[in-house]
Structures are given as structure tokens and as C-alpha cells.
Automatic annotation (TrEMBL), chains A, B:
NCBIfam families: tRNA_TsaA. InterPro entries: TrmO-like_N, TrmO_C, UPF0066_cons_site, YaeB-like, YaeB-like_sf, YaeB_N_sf. Keywords: Methyltransferase, S-adenosyl-L-methionine, Transferase. Belongs to the tRNA methyltransferase O family. The gene is tsaA. GO terms for biological process: methylation. PROSITE patterns: TSAA_1, TSAA_2. Residues 4-144 form the TsaA-like domain. This is tRNA (N6-threonylcarbamoyladenosine(37)-N6)-methyltransferase TrmO. It comes from the Bacteria. One of its GO terms (molecular function) is methyltransferase activity. Pfam families: TrmO_C (PF18389), TrmO_N (PF01980).
Amino acid sequence: MYTVEPIGRIISPFKEKFATPRQPGLLTSVQSQIILNTNFSKNAVRDLDKFSHLWILFLFSECINKKKKELIRPPRLGGNKKTGVFATRSNFRPNNIGLSSVILNKVEINKNNVSIFVQGADLIDNTPIIDIKPYIKYSDSHEDAISGYAQEAPLRKKVFFFKNAWNKQIPKNHKELIQEILSYDPRPGYKRDDNKEYHVKILHYDIGFYVLKSEIFISKIILLI
Amino acid sequence: MYTVEPIGRIISPFKEKFATPRQPGLLTSVQSQIILNTNFSKNAVRDLDKFSHLWILFLFSECINKKKKELIRPPRLGGNKKTGVFATRSNFRPNNIGLSSVILNKVEINKNNVSIFVQGADLIDNTPIIDIKPYIKYSDSHEDAISGYAQEAPLRKKVFFFKNAWNKQIPKNHKELIQEILSYDPRPGYKRDDNKEYHVKILHYDIGFYVLKSEIFISKIILLI
């Protein structure tokens, strides 16, 4: 047995697992901020900005006390076929450690606070970060890799707003972010009733939407704060 | 604080940190075997063989009780320039977790024992493994990544055997493996005296070698068992 301590936390637009992307990099418009704990100084990130991409290791903190399973139903397989836990990136895994590659935007240092701004992270708001490593192209990029059931990125749906769903007080970049996130159809494979209103929290909004085949209709956006 | 338990161990030809490659994938001829703990059944690896590459998360177990540093001297920078720990893959890092992508060769199941045979791992023999994840090309492969001081793979040196250094009892594939490993010049950047005999343990051999500019000469191979 071995202990791990978070090195920081992430601030992200995803407030719940539902609608959080299933892999990193699908939503490059998603901006997140990693805030290192104050015991790390600017020295710990010296030269980090010489890399375009980073690896983030994090804890699936919501799953830590949940029962572990050897078989998982990946959403990509429609939610009814079981696959071994080590053949998935599922959050229900023996050591609850997640791995995501992200684009590095900038490193910001304010007195004792080190922030790392990244793009494309698939992490829920407030997720504990346990490591950051540089992405090294010659050893990490395998263009020829065969990736089983996840060889290609998931298909996207068109996203429309019902009349009045989009209030002009909502900034345009938030509207676009909501649209991009929902385009991947966040519904789990085993729970896909069309004609039902689904709800998801993104940023400080509660968003209602319907799915009809390959189109998604946003019915309401409720401001939560 | 959070606890992590190894899921298994790796059997590798690298017996010490010296001469262990600094990144995965440099030595594709290196074969290793991950043996899962017996509490994992064949279910845990179902469909894993549909992926060509895997991620291995492991513990830098030799560094767990060593002092943590915010600044590291990467060997690639000659060993005298300091870089932030999060801008390196150094084993001296806050949570001692390592990350390597490897080629998956085969999954073997023998009664209650699950073994995963991989190629290109840069892990020392007996390293505790804490997770295995599939490599997903569309989210992990970034051909356009800029990787600071490690943009290109390190240069390799030519490796020769002194007369009598190579005994015919040593199988040819071991000879080739030793040659390939030493071609990356395992000496740390700050300790590069030519004309000195260095020693390294690989497989069950103790190997003596000299470095002269861009050439390496193996002076002896001593069988350890």
C-alpha cells in the first residue's frame, strides 16, 4: 500500500459526470485551470511552457469508495456489452487514477499561486490532480495505434436551441461551449429515450435538452447563481 | 491522502536504473511481462488484445522515500541545467507515479495467472504496476506536439564488442539487446569520463564498457547466475 497526495485541483466547466467528455481532446474549446497547492513554487513548472501538450494524472474522486468491478460496459459499445476494466478508461478502476492529454495554453504565476491553463480536459470541476508530465512526442504519439472499439472519435450530433431557450444574457462563448459539449450526446448507451427531457449542469447553468435521432434540441438554460 | 495498491509487477531485463531507457518506446526489442496479482481474473483483461498499444502506470518504487525536489537536471540537457519537476518525467516527483506507452504483444491466461507481454517498456525489473489503460489514438496521439528539450529521440552511438567480450554461450538475442540498450549511452550527463570502465546489470549479466566519443566498446560480459 502506498499513499498519494493531490498536488492541486482543476477548475472546469463540467459540474457532474453526465456530459463530461469520455476522452480528452474531443472538446478543444473547453478551458480549464489547474491550481497547484501553495507548497509548490514557480520552480516546479519551470520550462513547462516549452511543451505544447501535457499529461494530467488525476483521481476519479467520486468513485473512490465505490465497488470495484472487473467488467465494464463502455458507452461506446452501446452500454450492453461488457469489456475488461483494463481495456477501458472507465472511472471504476482499481486505483481510480485518470489520465488525460491536454493542450497547454499558459502558465501563470501570481505570488505564491501557480496556475496552469489547459484546453480539452475531460475532468469534472474540483478533481484532485496528482501529477503533471510533459507530453513527449517521440515516445507518446503513435499514429499507427489500433484502438479496438475506440479507433475513431465518436460521431457528433447537430445541436439547436428551441426558441427562447437561449437568453441573450448568456455570453456567446458559453452558448458555443454548451453546444459543443452536447454535440457528443451525453446520454449513456443503455438509457436513450427520445422524447424525454434530459438535464445537465455545465458551468453555472442547468440545461434541458431533447434528442431526436441525430439532432439535439436545447429546451431551456437556467442560470444557477 | 489516498492509497494506491499495486495490481501486479513487471518482469524486465533492466536490473538497475543505470541503462534503463529514459523514455518508453526507444527500445522496441525490449520484451517485458506484466503479471497481474491473482485477485484479477481473465475478465479484467477481456478485449485488451484489441488494442495495439497500452499505457502502464507504475510506481517509481526506488524513489518513494527519497527527498522530493522542485527542480530536476534532465540528462537530455547535459545534467547541469535545472528544469521544473513537472516539465520532466523524472522519477523524483511528488507522487512517484510513472507513465509509459508500450506495444502490446499478447495476453496470456494460465489458470489464475494473467500475464501481459509488452514491448518497449522502460521499467526496472519488479516495478509495481498500478494501472493499465488502452491507448486511444484519437485522444492520445498528437503528431504536432512540441516537446521542449525532448522533441527528437536521443542520438544513438555505435556499439562494438572487444575481442573475447562476447562469449558464444550468450544467446544472440541477448547480445543484440545489450547492444541496443547501450547505444543510447546510459551515462548521466554530469559524469561522462571517457577512458573509464562503466558497469551495468542487464538481464543476468554484468556488463563492462568504455565510451569513446560516439562509440561504445563492450569490454566484458560476466554471467551473474
